[in-house]
Amino acid sequence: MRAVVVHGPGDVRIDERERPVPGPGEVLLAMEWGGICGSDIAYWRKGASGTAALTHPLVLGHEVAGRIAQVGDGVTGLDEGQPVTVHPARLVGDGALPARIAGRTNLHPRVRYFGSAAFDPHTDGGFSEYRTVPAAQIRPLPDGVGTEQGALAEPLAVALHAVGRVPALRGRTVLVNGCGPIGSLVVAAARLHGAQTVVAADLASSSLKIAAAMGADETRDLSAGERLPEDVDVVFEASGAAAALGPVLRAAARGGTVVQVGNLPGTAVPAALGDLVTREITWIGSYRFVEEIDEALGALRDGLDVSPLITHRFPLERAEEALAVAADPAGGSSKVMLRLAP
Question: The Enoyl reductase (ER) domain covers which part of the protein (predicted)?
Answer without folding.
Answer: 8-338
